[in-house]
Amino acid sequence: MNNAVNCKLVGLPTILKWLVLSALVFSVRGLAVEVTGLVQLNFVKASEQTSWFDEGTGILAYSKDGAHVQQAFVDLSDSFSNGLSYNLVANYYQLGEQNLGISQAYISYKPLSRSKIRWRGRIGFFYPKLSLENVDSGWLSPFTYTQSAVNSWIGEELRTPGLELSVFSPGRSRNSPISFELHGSLFKANDPLGTVISWRGFALHDRQSLNNDRVPFAAYPSVIAEDRIFHPNYVEPYHELDGNIGFYLGAHIDYYRQSTLRYYYYDNQGDPLAVSHERLYAWRTKFHSLALQHKFDGNTRVVAQWLSGSSVMGTRFVYIDFDAWYIMLSHKYKAHRISLRFDKFKVREDDVFEWDQNNSDGHGYTLAWRYDLNRNWQIGLEQHINENSADIRATLGEDLEVNQQQSLAVLQYRW
Amino acid sequence: MLKLILVFTLFSVSFFVQSNKISVKVLTQERQRVGNVVVYLTPKASKVSAISNKIEIMDQVNTQFSPHILAVQKDTQVRFPNSDSIKHHVYSFSQAKTFELQLYKELQADPLLFSNTGAVELGCNIHDWMLGYIFVVDTPYFGKTDSEGNLTLELPDGDYQLDVWHPRIQDKFSVLSRPLSLPATSDIEIVLSSPLLPDVNQYEDISGEFSDYE
User: Fold this and answer.
1) Are B42 and B54 within one domain?
2) SS3 A14
3) Partner residue opposite A256 with nearest CB, options B104, B203, B212
4) Shortest Cα distance from A171 to chain B (angstroms)?
5) Which residues of chain B have pLDDT under 70?
6) pLDDT digit string (tens) for A228-264?
7) CA triplet A384, A390, A396: central angle to 5 degrees?
8) Is the confidence metric ipTM above 0.95 for this complex?
9) Within 13 Å, how many C-alpha atoms sit on residue A323's CB side?
């Protein structure tokens, strides 16, 4: 723990400012900026277990019944004839520490090409395209409101300020049913990735962390005490702490537009000994992600994803292996969409401190109905139940095993 | 009186210029009928009449070009509306017409003039699976075979050159081209000697809704 290095924010705010400025310059040149957005208002019947947002040990977002702004975002984008485009997503959340901020900001370059093998690139603050669940605008799920454990974690802790280059071959340009894409990225920051699943465990929600966000969790004595790990009971996931460059590699393969398989390997190359002045660590986190989608027809599809990896901080102060997967069936009938998802998630520790307990696991079911009243308005209902267990609750004198359920009624407006 | 003479003259002309109905079938070697084939007959003698100011439509529906193949007469304007709720970026590298067009949702782009004959292959730089064609011909006598592979055309007496085009046909253009004299012929059968390129139109079968985060 004495191997402290200075915490440096990798100029993320500067990058964001630059991107916003570029976006403004582009739009001032007389080209129409496209503004889309969405607001979701909900009424929640919450679980009795207090949420991590309120420093409890529950794994669902809400602690109390009531009405909320579930989320709102504005997406600014435009593309130009030379193949350049930009995208900026600014969000508002009632829940969480940073209520207003940016979840994505990037510039893409995709030159017009007639080649059978083409390339494109993007630079900025963005998600790797490893999810087949988060395919609606703003990286939302069009299927359920409470997202899978896998992508809830991606949304709250993973974002890459970096450069991604992709090579791809559209099958139709080769008269073939098979299309493929290969992606490679180098990025800075995202060093504390892994913190929240090591202590809190996996959770299920739709709260994406914003550009300077802080994800809180319960004040576990083994984490916060000065004679223990001495880490704050929060993580700020996008810090650069060690100067190392992380990378990810991805491959997509599609059969027509019917079946899709996506594999990603992600490694933030964190130096687990690097720690900031506020005692946030760089965690060496790496994982494999495999996602699959098959559309039986235009209306029914199955989507599944499996994530498996590990994370370590300090000299094995905390070491975890994690596995999470889900399978979802979604059916659209006229303006109705019904989706049912099963989630299973597990974190297992193998580290030096017995008093810091990181084992957690659980499974859950989510059933959602969403109905498009028209192009702009949508209503929906969702019921989620789970059984989860976290050994670390013992340090707070709580039962390890908890059953949680949450009901949501949501009114959505998009434009 | 002048009106009467004019009506009489027009009546006489239309009476003496015979209209012929011809039917065209395009078949593979296995005698399977091929649909959506552009068939066009270019008159050998007379100069082709100028086209009207009609504007043709190549729409974007469910992230597909609609129709998949649009045949137009040379010097026709084509409008590219966008019936989707997302943006498209249509382009062509074809010699007959090279262009790129940003199609913002709920905004109308100006129509484009197609003044060179030949095939114009369309793509979308946002949705890579989108593929469409505009085939420009220098004659008013053209059409497409229906899903059963049939086409019926009406045209006046005369000598013509008959040509067919479809992106899956591999036979040489000149091999399939043939002279035609009307009223002598009425039923025309064109049998392809090479197999068709693979059919990948299944790209159009399943909607692209919520396929990827763009």
Assistant:
1) no
2) helix
3) B203
4) 7
5) 1-17, 46-50, 52
6) 999 999 999 999 999 999 999 999 999 999 999 999 9
7) 115
8) no
9) 5
Query: B178-182 and B187-191: which strand pairing?
Result: unpaired
Q: Are residues B41 and B110 in the same domain?
A: no
Length of chain B measured in residues = 214
Q: Is the residue at B209 inside a domain? A: no
Q: Which residues contact B27 (CB under 8 A, 6 or more apart)?
A: B33, B34, B149, B189, B190, B191, B192
Same domain, B151 and B121: no
Chain A positions touching B203 (Cβ under 8 A) are 171-172, 256-257
> Domain span at residue B68?
50-138
Helix, strand, coil shares of chain A as percentages rounded to 5?
10, 50, 40
Q: Supply the pLDDT for residue A79.
A: 87
Find the CB nearest A112 among B87, B91, B197: B91
Domain A12-414 in CATH 2.40.160.10: yes
The pairing of strands B19-27 and B187-191 is parallel
User: Could you tell me which of A326, A337, A413, A414 has the C-alpha nearest to residue A381?
Assistant: A337
* CATH assignment of the domain containing B157: 2.60.40.1120
Distance CA B76, CA B56 (A): 7
Hey, where are the domains in chain A? Answer: 12-414
For residue B6, being part of any structural domain is answered with no
Does B175 lie in the same domain as B120? no
Domain harbouring B75, CATH code: 2.60.40.420
- Which residues of chain A make contact with B210, given a CB cutoff of 8 A? 135-136, 142-143
Interface test with B, best of A172, A173, A370 (most B CBs within 10 A): A172
Shortest Cα distance from A124 to chain B (angstroms)?
Answer: 15
Quick check: is B106 in a domain? Answer: yes
Looking at residue A306, the DSSP 8-state letter turns out to be E
How many domains is chain B built from?
2
Residue B33 counted as domain residue: yes
DSSP string covering A210-249: -TT--EE----HHHH-TTTT---SEE-TT-B-S-PPEEEE
Residues B55 and B130 in one domain: yes
Collapsing DSSP states into helix, strand and coil, what is residue B201? helix
